[in-house]
Structure formats: C-alpha cells, structure tokens
Amino acid sequence: MEIACPGDCPYLVSAREHPSATALRRQQDDISSLVRMVRDLNERQSQLSFLVLTFLLRYQAPEFQPLLDEDVADATAALAATYETAARGVIYEHRPRSLPAERLISALTPALAEAGQGGGTPFQRDAAVVLRRVETAARAAMAAAPDNRRAFLDVIGRVIRTPDNDAREPDQTDATPRVIIP
Length: 182
Description:
Order of helices and strands: EHHHHHHHHE
Helix content: 55-70%
Radius of gyration: 20 Å
Number of helices: 8
Strand order of the largest sheet: 1-2
Largest sheet: 2 strands, antiparallel
Distance between the termini: 6 Å
Strand content: under 5%
Number of domains: 1
Number of strands: 2
Structural class: mainly alpha
C-alpha cells in the first residue's frame, strides 16, 4: 500500500535522515573501494581518476550493448598499455578484446588527449597509472560480485554525483513524496 504524504511528513523525514544499516554499510563499502583506488595518487593523477570516473558515469553506450565492468577493465587495460609504451618512446596502439571496450576507448581517448595537452611523457605515465587503477578496481568488483556485471559502474553511480547523474534520477519536483506501507 502506498500513501501520498507531504514532503515534511515525519516518517518520510525520518527515513531520509536515518537510512537502514544495509544502506549505510553499502555506502561505506562503496566509498572505501573508491578511496582504495585513488590512494597514494598525486594531484594530477587524482584529477585524472576523477575525469575517467565521471566519463564512465556519463558514457552512453550504443543501444542493446550496455557497458559492463569487463568492458571497462579491458578498455582501461588496453589504453594503459598504449600509454605505457608511448612513455617509453614506442608508438603502438593496444587493442581490447571486445567491441564495446573498443568503443569506450574511442570515446575516452579524446577526453584524455584534451586533458594531457602539452603534458608529454609525465602525463602518459600518470594516465597509465590511473587507467591501471580503474582496471584493477573494475576487476575487483567483478570478482566480488560475479552475479552483477555492472558492479563497478554501479559503485561509481552511487558515489559520484554529477548534474547529469542527478538529472537521470526521477524528477521529484512534481512528484508527491510517498511512504510505502507493507
């Protein structure tokens, strides 16, 4: 049963202010997984990791081909390998195993190129470090939740808030708050 109630309903306010223990535990786990990913990064690497994570959050995969954690891991591994070889002076473009990962690289490369203008080899090394961290985090999420093929992407969506991300959530301005009674 669902009851329409005003926004200042004490039950609704209480539910917003005091989320369940499960929700708190999930939030703590999500934040700690992203903190592990950015731990020990310098300032530029931290900025690059935020750039990559927000890019992944906003990325619109083609219809009927949703982006999965495996695609993220493959794409970031291939792109990191490309940056690592470029930092050593060898120009070689590593390719991922899947078409969705290839599309992700095609979309992510211009954003990284813009961020690294004039950065040269130090930027390439920093980008490789960040991309390897994203790869590791995506693979860890895949191992931790094998039944959820978007576990890493879901964590990013729950932790990082962007105006685009908030716009995708249901519009609450014209919807009446509701309390669900079992």
